[in-house]
Write a structure and sequence with these properties.
Layout lengths: L4 H7 L5 H16 L5 H6 L10 H16 L3 H7 L2 H17 L4 H11 L8 H14 L11 H8 L3 H4 L2 H11 L3 H24 L5 H18 L3 H17 L7 H5 L12 H43 L4 H17 L1 H18 L11 H14 L1 H6 L1 H17 L1 H17 L3 H17 L1 H4 L3 H6 L6 H16 L9 H6 L6 H14 L6 H12 L7 H12 L5 H14 L6 H12 L5 H9 L1 H4 L6 H16 L3 H79 L1 H25 L10 H7 L16 H11 L2 H10 L2 H7 L1
Length: 799
C-alpha cells in the first residue's frame, strides 16, 4: 500500500473534485492504520484549504478536525514548514470564527505552554504558543488572559533551551488587541522593550536563529511601542557602534571614502551582516508604519463624518444651508484637496526615509551609499557569502522603499541575480524582484525579459521562486503576459516535479481568467518553443497540456485557421513538423475539418515531408471516426488529394536535388577547365626559352654521341620504346579515339629524357617534364577531350 502514496499525492492535484475528496478519505484511512508514508502524504493536502472549490475545502477541513485537532495538533505546528504553517493559520482562523475551536481546547493549549502538564517539552511549549497566536488572528482576546505568561516564559530561561520560542513570543505580541497593548505597556512596557532591544542588539541567540527572531522583534516594537521611530533609531545606532568596536573606527564616512577593497575584511563580518539586516528591516517597518498612520487618519476622518451625519438632527432650513455649503465645498474641491494633502504628506514621509532633504543627515540615508558600494565589491562578497546575503537583502529592501534608489541600482541587482555564486542570494533577489514589480511596475517593465530568465537558473530553488513570483504577478494582473510566456511553458517539463506541478497550476488558473488567455498565447508559444532545443517528447507533452485548456469549439476552429496560416511564414522543416503536430492534437469537428480543407493552399508546400504527412493522416483518421456518411466521403476525397500532392511534391523535391547535384558537377568541371587554360596561357612564354635550351642540349648530345656511339644508340632505343608504351597506354585508357597525323618528330622530341618525367617528391619538376606536359595540353587529343566534356550528353555518360 505504501507504494501507491506517490500516486495519491498526484491525485490530490486533479482537476476533478471527486478525485481529490476520495483521495483525502483514503489517506485518512491509511494514517489510521499507520501505513508508511501516509502522514507525509496527508500533509500535502494542507495547501488545498485555499481552493476555490467548496467541496474540496470542506474535505480538508473535516480531515483536519478528525486527525489533528483531536489527536496531534501540537505535532503539526512543530514540524510544519512555512507553507504548511500558512495553511494551518488560515484553517485555524476559519475554525475559530465558526466556533469549532472550543474553550476547553484553548485551555489545554495554555496548559502545554505554561508547563502545567507533566512531561511537557520546550518544543511542545513553542507549538502550543504557535497555535494560540494563529487562533488569535481571528479572536485577539484569546491572548488577553496570559500576557504575563507570554513575557515570562517566551523570553525566560526556556528560550535558551528552545531559541525559536523567543521568535514565537514576538509573533504573539503582534497579535494583541488595542486594549491588551495598553495593558501590557502599563504593567510591563519597560521590561518588554528592554527584552526586545536586547534580543536585537545582543548575541544570546545562535546566528542561524537570530535573523528570524530579530525580524519578528523589530516588527513587534513597531506595533506595540507608542513612538517606534525613536527606539528604532537607538537600535540602529547600537548596531552600527558594535560593527566598529573591534576595528577602531568611529565613523562610517571614513570607510566609505576608502578605496582599499580589503578595508572591510578586518571587521567582524557577522556584526556587519547584522547591522545591515537591522537598518534595512527598520526602514521597511518605518514604511509600513507611515502607511498605517495614513490609514488611521483616513479611518478617523471617515468615522467622524459618519458620526456627524448621524448625530445631527437638522431642521429643513439648517439642512438646506449645510447642503449648500457641501455643494460649494465639492465644487471648490476642498474634500478632495484634504485627501490629496494626506497622500502628499505620506509620500513625503516615505521619501525622507532614504533620499529625503539631506540624505547625509538621515540615519538610513547615510547608510545607503555605503551599502551600494559594498554590494558592488564582488570580490569581497564572494569571500563572505553571509555578508553578501545580508547586504543584497538590505539593498533590495531599500530599493522597495525609494524609487530613485531603486532606479539607480536595478542594473546592480540584475547583475547579482544572474551571476552570484550563492543560490540563496539569487533566490532572495528573485523574490525581491516580485515586490519591486508591485511597487514600481514602470521601472521594472523594461527588465521583463531578465525576470523571465530566472526560470532557466541552474538552481531548483531559484526556478521555483521565479515560478511563484511570476505566477503571482500575472494572475493578479500586476504584470502583462508578454512574448516570454514560453519560458513558463518550458517549465512544464522541468526536471523537478514540484516546479512542473506549480506551472500546471498556473496555466490552469490562467485559463479561468476572462476569455481564456491561454488560447491567445498558444501561437506565440508555438512560435518560440521549436527553437529552444526541446526534444520531440517534451514539446509534445507541453503542447498537449496547453491544448487541454481549450474547451470551446469556436476557439478550436479559430485555432485551426491560425495554425494553418503559420505555415506560410515558416521555411524551417522542424517548425512545419511542430505546427502539424499541434494540428493533430486538436479535437476536430465538422466545421474545423472544413476550415482545414479550405486552408489547403497555406500548407500544400509542406506535404513533401513524411512526418508532416503522418500528422495530417492522423487528423484525417480522427475526422473519419465521427463524420457523417456524406462528410466522410468528402474527407476521403481530401485524403486522396493530399496523398497525390505528397507524392508529387516528394518527386519534385528529389528532382530538384538531383538537378542541384548535376549543376554542381558541371560547375566543378568548368572551373577545372578554366584553371587549366590559365596554366596554358602562363606557360606559353616559357616554351620558347625552353626550346632554345633544348636545341642546345641536343647539339651537345650529338657531339657527345660521336665519342660514345654504342651507349647513345641504346639509350635512344630505350627512350623510343618507352614513348611507344606510353602512347599505347593512353590509347587504352582514353574514352576517345586518338587522332592520326601527329608527327613522329614530335613524339621523339617528347620522349627525350623520359625517365625523369616523375621526379622525387623532394625535387622540383625539371624543364623537360614541364615542356612535355605543355606539349600534351596543346595536342589535338587534349582539345578533343575538352570539347567532349563541354557536351552535356557526354557529361552524363561520364557521371
Amino acid at each position: 500500500m505504501s507504494s501507491v502514496m506517490l500516486t495519491l499525492v498526484q491525485l490530490m492535484a486533479s482537476s476533478s473534485s471527486s478525485d481529490v475528496e476520495n483521495t483525502i478519505l483514503l489517506l485518512m484511512r491509511c494514517r489510521q492504520f499507520q501505513i508508511d508514508g501516509s502522514e507525509d502524504c496527508l500533509r500535502k493536502m494542507m495547501p488545498l484549504v485555499f481552493s476555490q472549490d467548496k467541496s474540496i475545502y470542506e474535505a480538508v477541513e473535516n480531515a483536519f478536525i478528525t486527525i489533528y485537532i483531536r489527536k496531534s495538533f501540537l505535532h503539526l505546528a512543530i514540524d510544519s514548514n512555512i507553507g504548511d504553517l500558512a495553511s494551518l493559520e488560515f484553517i485555524l482562523g476559519a475554525l475559530v470564527s465558526k466556533g469549532d475551536i472550543t474553550a476547553s481546547m484553548l485551555s489545554a493549549l495554555w496548559d502545554f505552554f505554561c508547563f502545567n502538564i507533566d512531561g511537557t517539552t520546550a518544543q511542545q511549549c513553542r507549538g502550543a504558543l504557535s497555535v494560540l497566536f494563529m487562533a488569535a488572528k481571528a479572536s485577539p482576546c484569546i491572548l488577553s488572559s496570559h500576557l504575563q505568561d507570554i513575557v515570562d516564559i517566551g523570553f525566560g530561561r526556556w528560550a535558551k533551551v528552545e531559541p525559536l520560542l523567543a521568535r514565537t513570543a514576538c509573533s504573539a505580541l503582534q497579535r494583541l488587541s488595542e486594549e491588551d497593548k495598553k495593558k501590557l505597556l502599563s504593567t510591563n512596557g519597560t521590561r518588554v522593550f528592554g527584552i526586545l532591544e536586547y534580543l536585537i542588539s545582543g548575541f544570546s541567540l545562535p546566528e542561524n536563529i537570530w535573523y528570524a527572531a530579530a525580524d519578528t522583534a523589530i516588527s513587534a516594537l513597531y506595533i506595540i511601542h507608542p513612538t517606534p521611530e525613536s527606539i528604532a533609531a537607538d537600535l540602529v545606532k547600537k548596531s552600527l557602534k558594535s560593527v566598529f568596536e573591534s576595528s577602531g573606527g568611529s565613523e562610517l564616512q571614513g570607510d566609505r571614502d576608502s578605496d582599499n577593497p580589503n578595508v572591510l575584511t578586518s571587521m567582524q563580518v557577522a556584526k556587519l551582516s547584522r547591522y545591515l539586516f537591522v537598518v534595512s528591516h527598520v526602514a521597511m517597518n518605518q514604511l509600513v508604519y507611515i502607511e498605517s498612520c495614513l490609514r488611521k487618519v483616513q479611518k478617523a476622518k471617515a468615522k467622524k463624518e459618519k458620526m456627524d451625519a448621524e448625530n445631527k438632527n437638522l431642521d429643513v432650513s439648517t439642512e438646506s444651508d449645510v447642503q449648500k455649503d457641501d455643494g460649494i465645498n465639492s465644487e471648490l474641491g476642498l474634500a478632495a484637496s484634504e485627501d490629496a494633502m494626506l497622500d502628499s504628506l505620506a509620500e513625503r514621509a516615505e521619501k525622507e526615509i532614504i533620499s529625503g532633504g539631506n540624505a547625509g543627515k538621515n540615519l538610513i540615508g547615510h547608510c545607503a551609499p555605503f551599502l551600494t558600494k559594498l554590494c558592488r565589491n564582488f570580490s569581497l562578497m564572494q569571500k563572505y557569502p553571509t555578508l553578501q546575503a545580508s547586504g543584497m537583502l538590505a539593498l533590495c529592501r531599500l530599493m522597495i522603499i525609494d524609487a530613485e534608489f531603486c532606479e539607480s541600482n536595478l542594473q546592480l541587482l540584475f547583475t547579482v541575480v544572474e551571476n552570484a555564486l550563492s543560490e540563496v542570494v539569487r533566490s532572495n533577489c528573485t523574490i525581491a524582484l516580485g515586490d519591486l514589480a508591485v511597487r514600481f511596475p514602470n521601472l521594472l517593465e523594461p527588465w521583463t525579459e531578465n525576470m523571465y530568465a530566472r526560470l532557466r537558473d541552474q538552481s531548483v530553488s531559484v526556478r521555483k521562486n521565479a515560478v511563484l513570483v511570476l505566477s503571482h504577478l500575472i494572475l493578479n494582473d500586476m504584470m502583462k503576459v508578454k512574448g516570454y510566456i514560453y519560458e513558463m511553458a518550458m517549465r512544464l517539463e522541468d526536471e523537478d516535479g514540484r516546479i512542473g506541478n506549480l506551472v500546471k497550476l498556473f496555466f490552469h488558473e490562467l485559463s479561468k481568467k476572462g476569455s481564456n488567455p491561454v488560447y491567445n498565447l498558444l501561437p506565440d508559444i508555438l512560435g518560440k518553443l521549436p527553437s529552444q532545443n526541446l526534444n520531440g517528447e517534451s514539446f509534445g507533452n507541453i503542447m498537449q497540456f496547453l491544448f487541454g485548456s481549450i474547451k470551446k469549439d469556436k476557439q478550436m476552429e479559430s485555432l485551426v485557421e491560425k495554425l494553418c496560416n503559420r505555415f506560410t511564414g515558416v521555411s524551417d522543416v522542424k517548425q512545419w513538423e511542430c505546427i502539424s503536430y499541434c494540428l493533430s492534437q486538436l479535437a476536430f469537428t465538422e466545421k474545423s475539418m472544413k476550415k482545414l480543407m479550405e486552408s489547403f493552399k497555406t500548407y500544400e508546400h509542406v506535404l513533401s515531408e513524411d512526418i508532416v504527412m503522418e500528422h495530417f493522416r492522423n487528423i484525417i483518421n480522427k475526422g473519419k471516426k465521427f463524420a457523417k456518411p456524406e462528410q466522410k466521403a468528402i474527407i476521403e476525397e481530401f485524403e486522396e488529394k493530399i496523398d497525390k500532392y505528397h507524392n508529387e511534391k516528394k518527386e519534385q523535391v528529389i528532382t530538384e536535388k538531383n538537378a542541384q547535384v548535376h549543376q554542381q558537377m558541371v560547375s566543378n568541371i568548368e572551373s577545372y577547365v578554366a584553371n587549366q587554360k590559365e596554366v596554358e596561357e602562363s606557360g606559353e612564354s616559357e616554351i620558347t626559352e625552353d626550346e632554345v635550351e633544348t636545341s642546345n642540349s641536343e647539339e651537345g648530345e650529338v657531339l657527345h654521341s660521336k665519342s660514345k656511339p654504342t651507349r647513345s644508340r641504346t639509350r635512344s632505343e630505350a627512350s623510343s620504346e618507352t614513348t611507344e608504351l606510353e602512347l599505347e597506354d593512353d590509347e587504352v585508357q582514353s574514352p576517345f579515339k586518338p587522332l592520326r597525323g601527329a608527327s613522329k618528330s614530335t613524339i621523339k622530341k617528347s620522349s627525350i629524357k623520359s625517365e625523369n618525367i616523375y621526379p622525387e617528391p623532394s625535387t622540383k619538376i625539371n624543364t623537360r617534364s614541364k615542356r612535355r606536359y605543355l606539349t600534351l595540353s596543346h595536342s589535338p587529343l587534349y582539345s578533343a577531350w575538352i570539347c567532349s566534356l563541354s557536351n552535356t550528353s557526354n557529361l552524363e555518360k561520364i557521371v
